Amino acid sequence: MILSSCSDDHTVSRLSTLAENELQPETLEALEAVRMNGRLAEVYLQFANSEAALRAYLQMEQALSAGSLNEREIEAVKLRVSQLTGCDHCLSVHTFKAGKAGFSAEQILALRRGDAMGEVRIDCLIELVTTLMQTPGRLADEQLQQARDIGLTDENLVDLTMVISTIHFTNLTNHINDSKSPLAPAPSL
């Protein structure tokens, strides 16, 4: 196991933390978009144990930013999925990002619980996420029609599944890695 730092404390990650000079040029290029003040979060260097998976994830994240869902919708979905999977790392990160996207602390807790907030489109997305994550099989015709009735397009629905896929990938990888966020933990529900 490699010692990795998160904030000022030190924790042991369960996946190896690669050095940037060990990565392929195309991986380094893909990581440029997620650097903060020139630095990479160590979690990316742990996810890089599969450079192909990391690059695919980063490409999907780029596609999301060019897709049909806005930042608030994406962060709402990421919060709900992270709550449903119990990913403390992602709850920490996406609580912070949801605040930056304009959600209040009360709204963030409502999203995590799957409660309606009074924003019809976001409420519908959260209801869809909850159903898709908790109910195996085909989405009910009634729920699909309800989504269409409030204005969700087929593009929105496909983009929704991509948001779920990207955050589910990070949730599960963080469960394997036992990743620790450098940000404050998300408040308890």
What does this structure look like?
With 189 residues, the protein is mainly alpha-helical. It contains nine helices and two strands. It has helices spanning 25-31, 42-47, 51-65, 71-85, 88-100, 105-113, 120-134, 141-149, 154-177; strands at residues 3-6, 9-12. The protein has a two-stranded antiparallel sheet. β1 and β2 (9-12) form a beta hairpin. The longest helix has 24 residues, at 154-177.
Would you report the number of β strands?
Answer: 2
Terminal Cα span: 32 Å
Query: Which series of helices and strands comes N to C?
Result: EEHHHHHHHHH
Helix content: 55-70%
Structural class determined from secondary elements = mainly alpha
Main sheet specs = 2 strands, antiparallel
Rg (CA only):
17 Å
Low-confidence stretches: 1-10
What count of helical segments does DSSP give?
A: 9
Average of the residue pLDDT scores: 93
Summarize the topology:
Elements: E1 3-6, E2 9-12, H1 25-31, H2 42-47, H3 51-65, H4 71-85, H5 88-100, H6 105-113, H7 120-134, H8 141-149, H9 154-177
Antiparallel strand pairs: 1-2
Helix pairs in contact: 1-3, 3-9, 4-5, 4-6, 4-7, 4-9, 7-8
In short:
The chain is 60% helix and 4% strand. With 189 residues, it is mainly alpha-helical.
Q: What key phrases describe this protein's structure?
A:
single chain, 189 residues, 9 helices, 2 strands, 4% strand, disordered N terminus
